[in-house]
Input
Amino acid sequence: MNNGISDTLLKNFNLRSTPNRQEILHLFLRKNYALSHGDIEKEIDNALDRVTVYRTLKTFLDKGLIHKVLDDEGSLKYALCNEACTTAGHHHDHVHFKCTKCGQTNCLNVEVPLVKLPKGYRATETNLLIQGVCERCA
Output
């Protein structure tokens, strides 16, 4: 993987380039689906300890480089953000899709439909997960 791409991404999000951040970011760039903390630990083969992975994910999340993805099992996963995200906030009103065959969760370029809430309710975050079979497994 080209370090230039990840260096540029880190710089764009005002993050210092470190070997740990490079390794985790390279993983997100190689995979086209959401990753759990455990997925990341397996992929990096104990090169980084659990706390370092957690801190790196938290930093990426706080800076707007990745966003949270909830799956059907209540597990938290992470995916790269699009260009609209910043340290000021995430903009992820898009649908996530989990394949029931391969288990991968992907961000789809489909907006979450507007849901009219009852009076007195105020949404702060919206998540929509659709389950089925992805195009690769179909």
Remarks:
- The CA atoms of residues 30 and 77 lie 16 Å apart.
- The mean pLDDT is 85.
- The radius of gyration is 16 Å.
